[in-house]
Amino acid sequence: MSDRYLNFANTPAGRRLVGALGLPAPLPLERWVAGRNRPLEGALLIGGDGELGAAVAGFANRLTDEHFAARDDQYGLPRWTAEHGPKLKGLVFDASGLSRFEELDALRQFFQPALKNLGRCPHVVVLGRAPDTLSDPQASSVQRALEGFTRSLGKEIRRGGTVQLLHVVDPGAETGLEGALRFLLSPKSAYVSAQVLRLQPCAQQVSDWTRPLAGKTALVTGASRGIGAAIAETLARDGAEVLLLDVPQAKDALDALASRLGGRSLALDICADDAPAKLVEALPEGVDIIVHNAGITRDKTLAKMSEGLWESVIDVNLRAPQQLTEALLQAGALRDNGRVVLIASLSGIAGNVGQTNYATSKAGLIGLAQSWAPTLAERGISINAVAPGFIETGMTAAIPFTIREAGRRMNSMNQGGLPQDVAEAVAWFAQPGSGAVTGQVLRVCGQSLLGA
Ligand SMILES: NC(=O)c1ccc[n+]([C@@H]2O[C@H](COP(=O)([O-])OP(=O)(O)OC[C@H]3O[C@@H](n4cnc5c(N)ncnc54)[C@H](O)[C@@H]3O)[C@@H](O)[C@H]2O)c1
């Protein structure tokens, strides 16, 4: 569904009116376009003191042609100055070496000149250490403080910008930095902001960045339309062979998409008694990537919620993903170094009126990711949840106008996300090197005010 307000606010007359009335002024966000090679098109500035900044400088030429350091003689890169530009598209600040409260001012010193010289839709990443891995209380507190800083900067940056905090577990997790920054500094993370992620060591690496999923087989449930269809397209774009699953009623759309993507289709209700067996049968060679995207809403306040409405949502959204994953694991069909992604929801984090059933199911998915992660890690398998906020799909088009408008604007981007935004996050989690991230929740919500 098109966002008419966003379109109007970006016309000359709209810009004047929106400015005069102090209304939200959403900018069209830059998105990844198939065929693009470089994660960043524009200048990248690296700053801070620590080994992680040096590690980023080591592969910066693979991210963009224009890379700079904040100081002379740093990282062997030319120095960027506010006076001479160029405008900045990406900022990486290594805060991992900060351990005393007085050192936190380094953040202000680095970001202040840079913020006045940002290009459109800039991406910012602060690198830190996981506070719970540090024994010194002040050092741990300083690292925790970075979370407040990045979340606030996410609200201040505007211009369609994003800000994330990446905790890099020491030692060995730096090898995952390139994969993470290729996502977090590029338009692939257009609608992801104010997220805190933890990178752990991972032995797997992407060998060809133009087709990071080449040689992998991916299953996507609920793939005939909306977010599921976008996930299927994106995984296929990145080189995966896709098996698309949806209910028998959606068979025509499913078959059409599968044949366009050179994949296979499976018309199956994931709640059917024989669904686990049928799925195992459809994957005789096994599967590397499982995306549990199929989901339903059956909204009613709890006072009016029937058993049927409650059970149907728990069955589709929570029980089926658990049972299908279990069946694939038991049959040995989920390969070593596999990637499981569960599509949760902001409702599962913030709660929502009329969605006790839905929020319960989605919070349960987050619980599944967290509880399964340690066991699956023994086989190099990662499992994560992606929690979309307001995404422009048939599901959100059905929401009454005023609630829909509130949902769209109540985030730092002042707009809804697109199915592609969720799909890009899934595709990043699906990469071989993304075994560095497991048991975590990534919100794709434009830094929604809800549940923040
Ligand atoms: N659209 C949003 O803003 C939003 C926000 C947060 C979370 N989500 C989640 O993202 C996922 C996709 O949402 P969407 O907006 O694309 O919804 P959608 O309704 O357009 O698509 C859901 C798909 O799941 C399929 N499905 C439902 N029950 C099934 C079953 N029993 N077996 C097999 N397939 C089944 C449907 O046929 C449909 O193709 C859902 O899990 C949803 O809860 C969406």
Characteristic key phrases:
452 residues; alpha/beta; Rossmann fold; 3 domains; seven-stranded parallel beta sheet; 15 helices; 38% helix; globular
Which helices and strands appear, and what pairs or packs with what?
Layout: H1 4-9, H2 12-21, E1 43-48, H3 51-63, E2 66-69, E3 88-94, H4 105-115, E4 118-128, H5 137-156, E5 162-168, H6 177-184, E6 195-199, E7 217-221, H7 226-237, E8 241-246, H8 251-260, E9 264-267, H9 275-282, E10 287-292, H10 307-330, E11 334-343, H11 347-350, H12 356-377, E12 382-388, H13 394-397, H14 401-409, H15 419-430, E13 441-444
Parallel strand pairs: 1-2, 1-3, 3-4, 4-5, 5-6, 7-8, 7-10, 8-9, 10-11, 11-12, 12-13
The structure holds nicotinamide-adenine-dinucleotide.
Residues 221-222, 224-228, 246-247, 250, 269-271, 293-296, 316, 343, 345, 388, 390-391, 393-396 line the site of nicotinamide-adenine-dinucleotide.
Tell me about this structure.
With 452 residues, the protein is an alpha/beta fold. The protein has 3 domains: 1-30, no CATH class; 33-199, Rossmann fold; 217-444, Rossmann fold. The protein has 15 helices and 13 strands. It is globular and about 65 Å long. The model has no long low-confidence stretch (mean pLDDT 95). Residues 221-222, 224-228, 246-247, 250, 269-271, 293-296, 316, 343, 345, 388, 390-391, 393-396 line the site of nicotinamide-adenine-dinucleotide.
